[in-house]
Amino acid sequence: AKRECRGHAVVFADRHDREIRKVRQIEHELHTADLDKEIHILFQRQFDTATNRTTGYEVLARWNSPVLGEVSPMEFIPLAEHIGLISKVTQTVLRKALAVSATLPKHIRLSVNLSAHDIGSATAIKAIAGLLKQAGTPRRIDFEITETAVMRDLDQANSSLLTLLALGSRIALDDFGTGHSSLTHVQRLPLDRIKVDRSFVTDICNDRTSQAIIKTTTELCRNLGISCVIEGVETQEELDVLVGLGGTVIQGYLFGRPVDADTMLAQLARERTV
Ligand code: C2E
Ligand code: CA
Ligand code: CA
Ligand code: CA
Question: Which of 30, 35, 42, 60 to mutate to test the pocket of ligand 1 (most atoms within 8 A of CB)?
Answer without folding.
Answer: 60
